[in-house]
Specification:
The chain has 388 residues and is α/β, with parallel strands linked by helices. Helices cover 32% and strands 16% of the residues. It folds into 2 domains: 23-43 and 262-388, no CATH class; 53-220, no CATH class. It is built from 13 helices and 15 strands. An 11-stranded mixed sheet has the order 4-3-2-6-7-8-9-10-11-14-15. A two-stranded parallel ribbon has the order 1-5. A two-stranded antiparallel ribbon has the order 12-13. Bound molecules: S-adenosylmethionine and iron/sulfur cluster (SF4) (2 copies). Residues 130, 132-134, 137, 139, 141-142, 175-177, 205 line the site of one iron/sulfur cluster.
């Protein structure tokens, strides 16, 4: 008899107790493994990092006009190179000499006389002001907004003056919520005309008035819309705002130019189980991309242990707490993701829409490029990390 069936029978007949049940999905490492590995592992011997004049390639312009060497460094005041209002920016870039290896991929070095500014990517945070209040906001926009620490100053003149130094290959515009900021809206209406060879991308929650869709037509090469839940109640809990406007706004943009729209789902602890439902809806809208990133969800979860249950002394009548809860939910969601991709195989094969999942959360349920490839699913990429 099949072992599982035998076990079920024994369990029903009382021959086996809950405490003797094996850990479910034991082949899938638990979030606890990740956490333990992270906190107890000795610092790995890193190979010497390659040196890079990062600030000649990428720049993050913060809401206060501060110039920083890349988007990983935005909260680090010691890495502020100068301000876009300064008159001697090329000199400040040339002189900038601060240690940095935050990304773990390279080490910042000072420019020397052979180096030339060649911006590949400039990111502009027009202001931290936002019209909604996401519980996980990684830029802490709701806090800045509540404390009044955001600027409404029109920095357009300075943004253009900075970009004129060397128009970048890619310009990303984000907030806070740029589409809810009048000065931001006014600025980027002219950006595409001024920097014709620059790829201009917008990141937005899409939780704005539908009229904005007309106002921004033609301003961007791509628009990434971030979803923070799919079922209305989930979205409302994460953002403190209804989801209706996001659906309406996405539909309007897709009607304008479907290939420019990227529909992104950010998984958080209370919405990740809806990822496959979002995926199903999003693929059928046929945008350029459907992506799934993660906000470090495993660090929010109450960690599983590698035993089938824990004892909660404070609650004697239901003292045994099963430890497989999160593993099961993640695992089931991954199964649903694969089923959804299979169901939409024809659309994926057409190549009009591509799908990209970051593996940071779902690898704990078995999601990997290998798994996707074993189902021969085309145009689906599983990347390492959170995707952010
Ligand atoms: C700070 S938001 C600003 C733009 C816009 N308000 C939005 O929400 O899309 C920029 C990007 O960061 C992502 N983000 C926000 N909080 C995050 C977090 N805690 N971890 C990872 N990404 C996060 C959002 O999904 C969004 O795509
Ligand atoms: S070393 Fe890494 S984190 Fe630091 S500025 Fe360069 S790319 Fe950014
Ligand atoms: S919409 Fe974007 S900026 Fe606003 S609170 Fe949410 S994540 Fe932060």
């Amino acid at each position: 008899m099949d072992t599982l069936l035998l076990m079920k029978r024994k369990f029903r007949s009382g021959l086996i107790r809950l405490s003797e049940l094996p850990v479910l999905n034991s082949n899938i490492p638990s979030p606890a493994d990740l956490h333990k590995a992270h906190v107890t592992a000795p610092a790995p011997e890193l190979p010497a990092l390659p040196e890079s004049v990062c600030h000649y390639e990428t720049i993050f312009i913060r809401d206060d006009g501060a110039i920083l060497p890349c988007c990983n460094t935005w909260p680090e005041d010691r890495l502020v190179i100068g301000n876009i209002r300064d008159d001697n920016i090329p000199e400040k870039l040339r002189q900038f000499d601060q240690p940095c290896d935050i990304c773990g991929k390279c080490r910042l070095k000072r420019a020397d006389s052979q180096d030339a500014i060649n911006f590949r990517h400039v990111i502009v945070e027009t202001s931290k002001f936002c019209n909604i209040d996401c519980a996980m906001c990684g830029h802490f926009s709701p806090y800045h907004t509540r404390s009044g620490r955001y600027n409404r100053e029109d920095l357009a003149y300075y943004y253009d003056r900075f970009l004129d130094l060397c128009p970048p290959k890619i310009l990303s515009v984000l907030g806070g919520e740029t589409l809810a900021q009048k000065h931001g809206l006014n600025w980027f209406k002219g950006v595409k005309k001024r920097y014709k060879d620059t790829y201009v991308e917008l990141v937005t929650s899409g939780n704005v008035k539908p009229q904005i869709a007309d106002a921004i037509e033609g301003c961007f090469d791509s628009i990434l819309i971030s979803f923070y839940g799919f079922q209305p109640e989930t979205y409302r809990k994460v953002t403190n705002s209804p989801i209706d406007r996001v659906f309406e706004f996405s539909d309007l943009l897709i009607k304008q130019a479907r290939e420019k729209v990227h529909l992104k789902y950010l998984t958080t602890p209370i919405n990740f189980h809806e990822s496959a439902v979002f995926l199903d809806w999003a693929i059928q809208k046929e945008p350029g991309w459907v992506v799934n990133h993660d906000c470090n969800t495993v660090y929010f979860l109450n960690m599983d242990l590698d035993t089938p249950y824990r004892i909660n002394e404070a609650y004697p009548t239901h003292a045994k707490i099963p430890n497989n809860y999160w593993k099961q939910i993640i695992h089931r969601t991954v199964q649903d993701i694969i089923k959804t991709l299979e169901r939409n195989r024809d659309l994926l094969e057409s190549g009009r829409t591509k799908v990209a999942y970051a593996d940071f959360l779902f690898k704990w349920g078995g999601l990997s490029q290998q798994l996707v490839d074993s189902y021969n699913l085309p145009n689906v990429t599983i990347s390492k990390g959170t995707g952010c």
